[in-house]
């Protein structure tokens, strides 16, 4: 089965609300493989590059401030597996938590679009861009899940 990678980040509000374990648990339990993990307060330059597509939006400045102010760090992750980019977005739920289905991460744990606790790449192109932006190649682990044949067929 073809494997792909996506960038998932627990935002400062998700870290502050102690949801890191819950979020990792959902991706692990689904059968995805963790290949990158780091905690950092992103620089303004990193956050602005990460959200470059949104730079003309009225909320851009506030978004970058909230990601970078250091009141809590961000936990950046790379997850690998079948259809993980699209499935990751489904597991996150809609951008506006008031529209997110119950059972999704946003639908279960938050209510405000400005505090929606988690980021996930929205396409193959953005996943590649974001993984490259947040991680060096030598920070990504090349390993085999021992139970892969019970997850992938
Ligand atoms: P997503 O995070 O679901 O990919 P996006 O890329 O459109 O959504 O926007 C990035 C983040 O910007 C989003 O998670 C929260 C914030 N945001 C988006 N729309 C917003 C709005 N109308 N008001 C405030 N923040 C917003
Ligand atoms: Mg987005």
UniProtKB/TrEMBL annotation:
It comes from the Eukaryota. Keywords: Kinase, Transferase. Residues 3-142 form the Nucleoside diphosphate kinase-like domain. One of its GO terms (molecular function) is nucleoside diphosphate kinase activity. The keyword Kinase applies. The active site is at 119 (pros-phosphohistidine intermediate). ATP binds at residues 11, 59, 89, 95, 106, 116. GO terms for biological process: CTP biosynthetic process; GTP biosynthetic process; UTP biosynthetic process. It is an enzyme of class 2 (transferase). The keyword Plastid does not apply. Its EC number is 2.7.4.6. Its cofactor is Mg(2+). Coiled coil: none annotated. Belongs to the NDK family. This is Nucleoside diphosphate kinase. It comes from Dispira parvispora. The gene is ndk1_1.
């Amino acid at each position: 089965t073809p494997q792909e990678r996506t960038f998932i980040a627990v935002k400062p509000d998700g870290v502050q609300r102690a949801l890191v374990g819950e979020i990792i648990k959902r991706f692990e339990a689904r059968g995805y493989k963790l290949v990158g993990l780091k905690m950092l307060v992103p620089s303004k330059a990193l956050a602005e590059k990460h959200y470059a597509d949104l730079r003309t939006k009225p909320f851009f400045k506030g978004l970058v401030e909230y990601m970078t102010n250091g009141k809590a760090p961000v936990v950046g992750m790379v997850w690998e597996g079948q259809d993980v980019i699209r499935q990751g977005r489904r597991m996150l739920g809609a951008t506006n938590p008031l529209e997110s289905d119950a059972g999704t991460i946003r639908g279960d744990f938050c209510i405000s679009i400005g505090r929606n606790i988690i980021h996930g790449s929205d396409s193959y192109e953005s996943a590649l861009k974001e993984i490259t932006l947040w991680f060096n190649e030598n920070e990504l682990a090349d390993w085999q899940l021992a139970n892969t044949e019970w997850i992938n067929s």
